Structures are given as C-alpha cells and as structure tokens.
Amino acid sequence: MSERTSLDEEAAGRGGSAPLTVQESTAADAPVQVSTGDLPDLQEVLEIVEAAHRSYARVDDGVVADYIPALAQANPDLFGIAVAGVHGQVAGVGDSKHEFTIQSVAKPFQFALVCEALGHREVRQRLGVNATGLPFDSVMAVELATDGLTNPMVNSGAIATTSLAPGRTADLKWRFLREGLSRFAGRELELDEEVLESERATNGRNEAMARLLGGHSRIYFDPDEATDVYTRQGCLLVTAEDLALMGATLADGGVNPVTQRRVVSEGTCRRTLALMLTAGLYERSGEWLYEIGLPGKSGVSGGIVTIAPGKGGLATFSPPLDAAGNSVRGQLATKLLSEALGLDILASSAVAEVR
Ligand code: DON
After folding, report:
1. HSE (CB half, 13 Å, CA atoms) of 253?
2. Measured CA distances, 326 to 63, 138, 293, 300, 320 (Å)
3. What is the mean pLDDT of residues 223-227?
4. Is 280 in the pocket of ligand 1 (CB under 6 A)?
C-alpha cells in the first residue's frame, strides 16, 4: 500500500520546477532493511582514539570563537575525544570529561525531538530540509531561501525549530527541550549561566533573524522568546563523552544504549542524520562528507558529534575553530577515526571477483 507524495510541495504550489515524487509507504515509520556491523572491541577502539589524540594534540591552527565574550576565555589546548558504541561501551581520551556549552551541536537533537512530536511531514514543510550553502548565522540565507525555509542545522532554521517545540509558553518549550536533550545524554544536563548571560547580551543577530523569519511567516511563536529558548539550549553543559552517547542514541535507532530508554523513533533518527549529512558542517558539509563520509554536527564552543549508523557516536572537543566555525582538531581526529574504524557509509570494497 502506498501513496504518491510530493517531495517538493512548495515548488509545486508556486508552479516552480516539477516536483520530485516517490512512492512513500503509508506507515508513518515503516521498518527499513538496516545493514549494521559492530565497532571493534573496546580496547581496540581505545587504542585508535588514543592515536587520534596523540596525532593532533599539538596542531595549533584555528582560533577560539570570540563573538560571544564568555566563549573567548576557553583554553585552546583542551582536547578530548570519545567514542560510544551502541552496546553502551565508551572510550574517552584527553579532556573527554571536560564540560563545555553544547552550542550548535544541540541542533540535530532538538530537531529530532520536535520531529518526533510533530511528525516528519509537518517539520519538513514548516522548517525546510535543504542546505543553504551559507554560514550558520547567515541572514541572507533566509532571504535567498524559497519562502524563508532554510534547515534546522543553521541558526534561522534552528530558531524556527525551537518555536515549534511543544508547549504554550517559553518555559514549557524550554522544559521539553532540556528534558529531551537530557534523555539523549542519559543524565540531567545543567545550564552554564555565565555563558547564557554573555550570549543574551550579544544576541542581536539571532533576534533579528527570528523577526525576519516572522516576515516570512516562518516563526511559530513569539520571536524574542523563541530566540531566548534557542539560546538557553545552546548553553547546556556537556562533555565529549555525553556527546558521544547522544550520538550513539541517534546511531541506535533512538534508544540510549546506557539507559536503554527510547528517546525518538528510528524514522526520526534517519531523517535527523539526513539533515546532518547535508548541512551539519554548514558551507563545509560537502568537504566533510567527501573526507569523512558520516553525518556530523559542529558547534562554536569546539564540539563535533558524528554518527556511525548502527555502530555508535563519535565526539571531539577542541575550541580552536576554522573560518566556518568548525573545530580544527575535531575535524582531523574524526577523519582518522572514520578511516581507522572503517565507518565511512559511502565506502565499499569489491565482492565480485576482479578479472
Ligand atoms: O546561535 C549562536 O550563535 C550560538 N549559540 C550557536 C552557534 C553555533 O554553535 C554555530 N556553530 N558552529
């Protein structure tokens, strides 16, 4: 049983280019065939994580984010790496237990929670799912986008996502997101009040973005309050080990491998990973996919979470960033881990005999 569904209802409505159509199952989350394979055993993973840390600990390219005053104080030498498998095993090295504010790494998890609550069709229609190819804080992206739709991995789409979180008040939305992000991590996440005050005092760009979205009818709550809740969730404190477990939850079809509690559905996970693949590293997402072959998401405090579907989550933390706002050591270490652990989802080796 299937129905004909438009992948681009917006374009169809405007008489734009012909909409792409696919056969879609009527079941909300029809099970798909999943090909998995485990990570190597914990000791082997630990040795590879240690090698990644040793290889890049002395790289000193990049600069610590300073557009939020409190972030500028971060120690550039901090460097932690963690890998969490879908069976709950965690290998952490270096500063893997150091707490930092999650920043944009919250975006895929927030999207997953809102997608789960509203359904994947509604969030696609109201938020958009196409990459902007522009920086994370681009105002122009909203203006260039069809109908003000960007995607939930950049600030504009993420603020719109926050505005859709269940709850009639800002406090209820905040509670929904904080509790949901905490379920991903498997522990209650605390706020960094100092970073929050610093961001609130310098948040003009995000506030302007929310109002601009309002001009396109693409914000679904009071724009200032939605921006404030968005800012609060970015100030939740996590460690690389937390991020690895949050990633492992997305890798494990939505079940946290340590608490064994379901956070979101399998269908929500794969749609979240699709967004991470196309836009998780903003305008560098193509280069990331080309080099690493896995869905990832970066944040300005220096975190990166990367998902190996069916296998586990990888997380790195190192504050110095490249010009696009992505951790320099984090990108290097993740590439090494992807290669050494054989995680690239685009890689294959021939099974047919070569003549
Ligand atoms: O919206 C902001 O400016 C920050 N709270 C988060 C931005 C961010 O982490 C982008 N990441 N590279």
Report:
1. 12
2. 10, 15, 16, 7, 8
3. 98
4. no
Q: How far is residue 117's CA from residue 204's CA, in Å, rounded to a whole number?
A: 29
Residues 6 or more apart from 37 whose CB is under 8 A from it?
310, 311
The number of CA neighbours under 13 Å toward the Cβ of 277 is 14
Q: What b/e sequence results for 294-313 when a residue is b if at least 16 CB atoms lie within 10 Å of its CB, and e otherwise?
A: bbbbbbbbbbbbbbbbbbbb
Largest CA distance in the chain: 66
Instruction: Give the side-chain half-sphere CA count within 13 A for 173.
Output: 24
Residue carrying structure tokens 């919250």:
106
Q: Burial-class residue 26 by CB neighbours within 10 Å (0-12, 13-18, 19+).
A: exposed
Nearest CA to ligand 1 atom 7: 104
Q: Residue 304: phi, psi to the nearest 5?
A: -140, 130
Distance 350 CA to ligand 1 centre (A): 41
| Rounded Cα–Cα distance for residues 168 and 269 (Å) | 26
pLDDT per residue as tens digits for the range 137-178: 999 999 998 799 999 999 999 999 999 999 999 999 999 999
Q: What one-letter code names the amino acid at 339?
A: E
pTM recorded for the entire structure:
0.92
Specify the DSSP class assigned to residue 69: G
For residue 136, the CA-to-ligand 1 centroid distance in Å is 7
